Amino acid sequence: MIRLSTTQSGFEAEFRALLDQARETTAQVDAAVASIIAEVRKGRDAALLDLTARFDRWQPEGAAGLRVSAAEIDAARARCAPELLDALDLAATRIERFHAAQLPNDVELDDTLGLTLGMRWGAVDAVGIYVPGGKAAYPSSVLMNAVPAAVAGVQRIAMAVPTPDGVLNDLVLAAAHRAGVTEIWRIGGAQAIAALAWGTESIAPVDRIAGPGNAYVAEAKRQVFGRVGIDSIAGPSEVVVLADASQNPSLIAIDLLAQAEHDESAQAILITTSAQMAHAVEHAVAEHLTTLPRSAIAGASWEKHGAIIVVRDWEEGAALVDRLAPEHLEVMVAEPQALFARIRHAGAAFLGANCPEALGDYVAGPNHVLPTGRTARFASGLSVFDFLKRTTWISAERRGLDAIGPAAVALAEAEGLSAHARSIALRLGQGAG
Amino acid sequence: MIRLSTTQSGFEAEFRALLDQARETTAQVDAAVASIIAEVRKGRDAALLDLTARFDRWQPEGAAGLRVSAAEIDAARARCAPELLDALDLAATRIERFHAAQLPNDVELDDTLGLTLGMRWGAVDAVGIYVPGGKAAYPSSVLMNAVPAAVAGVQRIAMAVPTPDGVLNDLVLAAAHRAGVTEIWRIGGAQAIAALAWGTESIAPVDRIAGPGNAYVAEAKRQVFGRVGIDSIAGPSEVVVLADASQNPSLIAIDLLAQAEHDESAQAILITTSAQMAHAVEHAVAEHLTTLPRSAIAGASWEKHGAIIVVRDWEEGAALVDRLAPEHLEVMVAEPQALFARIRHAGAAFLGANCPEALGDYVAGPNHVLPTGRTARFASGLSVFDFLKRTTWISAERRGLDAIGPAAVALAEAEGLSAHARSIALRLGQGAG
């Protein structure tokens, strides 16, 4: 953990180093992934069965056994604690409501010249949702990825989830059922991405793939991009907490550690106007770490990537936040809305002391799939927009063509595109123009 | 050119072959591009000057000479024909108006439980627009890329345009001036993309890069993706024209050729319910080709990639369009709106006989940067959305936290994320929960 203050000499260099810190080394898996994709494109179902036996150490009798049946889903749900199913349902309902509010309107624009211009939104036909298996199988991620697709109106939502050693995660199946997933396939890794993108005898190809995964999954998404759409490839997670002197240091500390417990490359940063608060939070972090079950991970993240920055005022603080463009931003100050209004770049903001980031991770409603690694400067969280696309359209009366056609002819000729020019000139009755 | 009919045996196989036809071979330039990017990151301005001398055969005295001055822009505009400046202005005004209509609204959602959820749109700070130089320097592309950024509210729009042998394109500079570009740099290729993404002593880095380019530019965009955002990487252009028996075959033919004249890998497809129209259009294409200045290119494209497909009815026709998901779709039938309503996938549609695609390429208003190669299944044309990003936010009264906090604690514990659970439980007053 590094302690910085904007009043110290050399602050700018230290802050730049923090910005440029690489928190993740990318494994070189390009060639391995290319070969797995080629294997699936060639061998299709049979290749999927082989690869699943090789990587997940289980194999059904035939490709049909790769699909989770309705009976298996029902059985899994029956094994879930009712209060967890209720919690999933509350989360799904709130996520649905928030994402429905994002749904955009079509545009239709008449000009006075006799042309009508429009933009029509439509859903992608078929989407693949990748869900990691094993210990990192998170039902909340199933909701966050599948619900926006369902709300957008996607008709076919195919989920891929590996089941290492054949073990299914009941709550993941329950979440998929609640979220409106239409097919669940017990496949993972690059082979799952290849099957979703290219299709096999059993699995119809999809148009877009979303969802997190390991280095193989991320590289496979990169390699099938263009054939299908993909969501952004997430890096390690991060939070910036802004706190003034009035806050409870123990709550700030646990919020920082909630970020840090994800994995050792996660990053938690406190920016505060109070040197006293900085000390108190540092103490409280140490204290929480003595009792947290995941203290080994959280402690390593805090040690390697954590930072506490003391600023003179919130003008300075807001400027630092914009340079960090964090995935998560907690604003725990007296007037959180006013400070948030001065900040331009963050994936998601949590305003006031009653909104720990974990509330947003599960049940608040906005998505928890967010831009990491300073990409909030130009990227956004997962939303219905990831599952919609637009078609623009034009229609014209004859007088509309007459009004703007000559300008198009002039520009087309200036660009040397004579068939373009002629296609308009012929209609204007100017012959071969 | 291939002639197909849905009534012929073997149609499905032939149509599939058309769908899978690769129209472009991608040059292997990965290593060359990686080395250019490394050179610019290390040598910065000096490297840019060297690379510009090497590739564009031109070198100013210092890095300041890479920037086009206000005086140069004024001089370039003064050399443009007034009617072309007027045409550019008409186009820019209409493009501005259409893209302003796309601007989305923020979301703010109060629930009855004591939580407020929101989504706030904001512009990217700085954008790079790449404009190809030499013979493919299109002022219309400058407008189509820069205007949406300006309408979105981007404060800094830096344009990169190579000037081979030092030659500036006057109309490109005039378009940049009209579109609201704030800086113009006479740089091109992978070195321009590297400079925009990483910055040099003279050029501040941008957050997002848009605009078309050759194989080097496309690969450089791929390689800097993540550091900055990029727009989609366009493939060869295509049009599908739907025409019934009532249309003028000569107009259909010239519209097909307007697509084909872009380059030999462009594709033009006619789908018609009339076998007679199919013959008439084929004839008219041959006739136009005898007089078109770019007939060598257009003829080669039509020969290699063109297709005429006769369908039984528009139900069949619409289904084929959705499988092709074309970049451009002309709907020249008696009721174009009704047929368009049945089609789900296309980048941009041109409805009725008064709307040749070329009208949209220049002056209609919607963007001409569109998804190619069947990607309209999941992708959309360039728009203000490419230059905006969203921040979601949450705020809660204490009763809101009380209402939904317990469900979040249950889910966090089920996922084994105990610091997440504790960050909420502590606030709920349940101790270390």
Automatic annotation (TrEMBL), chains A, B:
Known pathway: Amino-acid biosynthesis; L-histidine biosynthesis; L-histidine from 5-phospho-alpha-D-ribose 1-diphosphate: step 9/9
The protein's Enzyme Commission number: 1.1.1.23
Binding positions for Zn(2+) per the UniProt entry: Q259, H262, D361, H420
Annotated active site: E327, H328
Binding site for NAD(+): Y130, Q191, N214
UniProt keyword list: Amino-acid biosynthesis, Histidine biosynthesis, Metal-binding, NAD, Oxidoreductase, Zinc
Ligand binding (substrate): S237, Q259, H262, H328, D361, E415, H420
The organism's place on the tree of life at top rank: Bacteria
Annotated cofactor note: Binds 1 zinc ion per subunit.
GO biological process, one term: L-histidine biosynthetic process
Keyword Cell inner membrane appears in the UniProt entry: no
Reaction it catalyzes: L-histidinol + 2 NAD(+) + H2O = L-histidine + 2 NADH + 3 H(+)
Role description: Catalyzes the sequential NAD-dependent oxidations of L-histidinol to L-histidinaldehyde and then to L-histidine.
Descriptive protein name: Histidinol dehydrogenase
Lineage: Bacteria, Pseudomonadati, Pseudomonadota, Alphaproteobacteria, Acetobacterales
